[in-house]
Amino acid sequence: MSEPGGARSATASAFRTDIEGLRALAVLAVLGYHADVPGFAGGFVGVDVFFVISGFLITGILFSEIARTGAVNLANFFARRARRLLPASALVLVMTAIGGRLLLAPVDFPLVAGDIAAAALYAVNLRFAWQSTDYLAGDRDGSPVLHYWSLAVEEQFYLLWPLLLLALLVWLPRRSRAARPKHAPSLPALRVFLLATCAVSFAVALWLTERAQPWSFFSPWARAWEFAAGALVYACRDALLRLGARRAAALGWTGLAALALGVVHTEEAGFPGASAWLPVLGSAAMIAAGTRGAFPAGHIGGLLSLAPLRLVGRLSYSLYLWHWPVLVYAMHAFGPMYWGEKLAWTLASAVPAALAWRFVEKPIHEGRRGATRRPVVGFWVGAAASCSGLIAAAWLAGPVLFATPGVAAENGAPPALEAQLAAVRDDLPVVYRDGCHLSIQATESAACVYGHADADVSVALLGDSKAAQWFPALEAIAQARGWRLLSLTKSGCPAAEVTLWSSQLSRVYRECGQWRDGIFERLAREPPDLVLVASVFPGRVYDASRQEEVEGADARSLWLDGWSRSFERLHAAKLRVALLADTPTAPQDMARCVSAHPDAPERCDFPLPAPAIARIETDAARAAGLPVIDLGAHYCRGGRCQAVIDGLLVYRDKTHLTPAFVRRLVEPLGEGVDAALARP
């Protein structure tokens, strides 16, 4: 988000009404995208427009001060940013915490509280980047403060940019300053610096987008070139002032067309790579077109200066802050929505946004002149705002983080359900903590041996997180029977030889195929007595021949072929193999459901899904003459899968069983493994 109210020209004291209108276009694009309005598929590029605007305005402010005084008063600069941005931001964080307490399931309190705390510290972009590549982090698109990532990037820009420009001023050779007024900055040197910044940052964006797209999307280093593009417009202002009226008008309308094209056609996959140039250059062109300050008939500035657009631009910061938590909580309260309903809630968010602008943002920003000029006031305002966000986060997390643990009864009864729910998000098999369950980007498995390392009988567990969920029971079996247990699991990577598209990486999941090939070669060199394989059907499979994801019958066909190839490959290596049948996927997050209905967890039970998907892998295994270990009867009874059995929470999310419940299945699982080992 560009600084609210910050549309003053970098070249004169006149207010840039066209920039205020451009801010309106940017926020409307984002609002349309979040509401799923047709034609706004690439509306997320509105954030890039804000970055360009900020680069232009802040660079102009800083260099104007350098020209006047030879330096930048950093205390005043940061205090002004704090007064303008932080109070309105903190208010939304506090209201988001209150809304979370009212509308979220308690099990989600700590996760959202962590988001709010990171947003209050303006580091939430890094938190989301890490979580986006964490396979078990879930769908973070539902975080009510997801949109704060861009505010964090801007704050990081505000912290670093003045220091970089001051360093540039100090670095300039003295002789380059001799012919200029005492404090005038060197625009040619600035242009060289900005072009270098654009080149390096854009190269970082391309490199990260190819390898870890979330880090490119959320990283300030991959976004720095967008700020630098706006700064370049300021650095080229002398040439732009000489631009004729017709050329300026053509430049502005071309920029608007580029931005519109970006809003309609830009795809999230591969962004912010090369496709980010369209909105960035478009917005930079519109800012450049208005450098002269006069908007004759036919100029883009006249359109952008229309009163309705200026009003939206004036409210854009508050609109951006309020619209997303309102929309997220509306969907929590009323369920999935069509785009028309989402748009209605998005428009409704204009009411609290306008009130916040009138009674919080505007008064603090335009307070008494003497008081607002004192940097210490701005710092105290910023500190109070950040602390209020942190306090709100702690208050939201409190009911779960500080819940009284349940005490197991003497007869071995499980802890209270509330205690299980409080720990469920972090309750994972030990292979996660040990680094033996590989992350999405890892390709090399360590020698993860459990049980008895020198045992005569060795068992290997192979597959994705659905295989790793069985580890607690298998480890107990290996310890009790003196076996050697080898863990070979990786997030989102099935044992079936299929190509997948990674939603976390926004590209083909190359690391999965590399890891799986290496594991098959390793098993052939060091064959265990039994290989237990388990994986979940991903729903969509990447068809390399068609260069696209497929679903339905096409995906199921590729899934069957993939299992057949894997079983043939394992058979060729003369390995004894057994399939652990997949556990049913619930229609909702079961821990969240039970958390919302702790006194009636049976409300979360769900009908046993049709076996069509699970039958694919079991049919492939049986066709290859392999045994299938199916424990479904222990958690799905009478055609329904249960959320809680004998006081134990069964599922930790939609798909994975809790370690505590898996340990309950040691005996039936051990019987199945024994039978598989006894086969020729």
How many extended strands? Answer: 16
Terminal residue distance = 66 Å
Radius of gyration: 29 Å
Total helical segments: 29
Pfam families: Acyl_transf_3 (PF01757), SGNH (PF19040)
EC number: 2.3.1.-
Domain SGNH: 444-667
Protein name: Acyltransferase family protein
Q: Could you walk me through the main structural features you see in this protein, from its secondary elements to its overall organization?
A:
With 680 residues, this protein is of the alpha/beta class. It has two domains: 17-397, no CATH class; 430-585 and 609-631 and 665-678, Rossmann fold (3-Layer(aba) Sandwich), CATH 3.40.50.280. 58% of the residues lie in helices and 7% in strands. The protein contains 29 helices and 16 strands. Strands 1, 2, 3, 4, 7, 10 and 12 form a seven-stranded mixed sheet that branches. Strand 15 (644-645) and strand 16 form a beta hairpin. The N and C termini lie far apart (66 Å). Mean pLDDT is 88; it is low at 174-181 and 404-411.
